[in-house]
Amino acid sequence: MIRVLLADDQALVRTGFRMILENAGDMEVVGEAGDGAEAVAMAEALSPDVVLMDIRMPVLDGVEATRRVTGAKVLVLTTFDLDEYVYASLRAGASGFLLKDTLAPDLLSAIRVVARGDAVVAPSVTRRLLEKHIGTGEGATAGPDLGSLTDREREVLGLLARGLSNAEIAGRLFLSEGTVKTHVSRVLAKLGLRDRVQAVIAAYESGLVRAGSG
């Protein structure tokens, strides 16, 4: 069972999500939070696999709450399809971003993807956001130190940041797909990143990949 925590300041929205998830058969709603601070506390107490996190909430907004949640994957849900929300959420550690009007099958699929450690937002979408925000200096901060990475791991990270899949990276570097997967796992572990989306952000913010590069 995938353990899910719902975080939204609207009780009706939480009720709707609960009905969808509990009818899925492989998901369990372990709690409901009405604001960001409550979401952080409940995530720590209940150890969910995935937190469905609203962006605009009282006390603590969804972006800051996402930053403070540890040990759970965060899937951000909002009515606002704006780049700045997506960007801020991903930088804070979210593994995915969906609109609240997403169809139930797509929502359930996204939760399953995030629960198994993958990201819902495609690297190509992340790259578009980074080209816009980091390319103009908007919201950019000092990136992680890549000094712990080997030359090969830096190479893999650079290709990953350009939106290449493991299979495409393997073809480019003449490696097996399994070897590439191992390199990606080591990059995530060394840099303390949650998933591939976080890795793409790290590559741009560290300067390994520049906005507008091929």
TrEMBL record:
Any GO BP annotation: phosphorelay signal transduction system
GO MF annotation terms: DNA binding
SUPFAM superfamilies: C-terminal effector domain of the bipartite response regulators, CheY-like
Entries under Pfam families matching the protein: GerE, Response_reg
Protein name: DNA-binding response regulator
Alphabetized InterPro entries for the sequence: CheY-like_superfamily, NreC/VraR/RcsB-like_REC, Sig_transdc_resp-reg_C-effctor, Sig_transdc_resp-reg_receiver, Tscrpt_reg_LuxR_C, WalR-like
HTH luxR-type domain boundaries: 142-207
PTM sites of type 4-aspartylphosphate: D54
Gene3D superfamilies, sorted: 3.40.50.2300
PANTHER family associated with the record: TRANSCRIPTIONAL REGULATORY PROTEIN NARL-RELATED, TWO-COMPONENT RESPONSE REGULATOR
Response regulatory domain location: 3-115
Source domain of life: Bacteria
UniProtKB keywords: DNA-binding, Phosphoprotein, Transcription, Transcription regulation
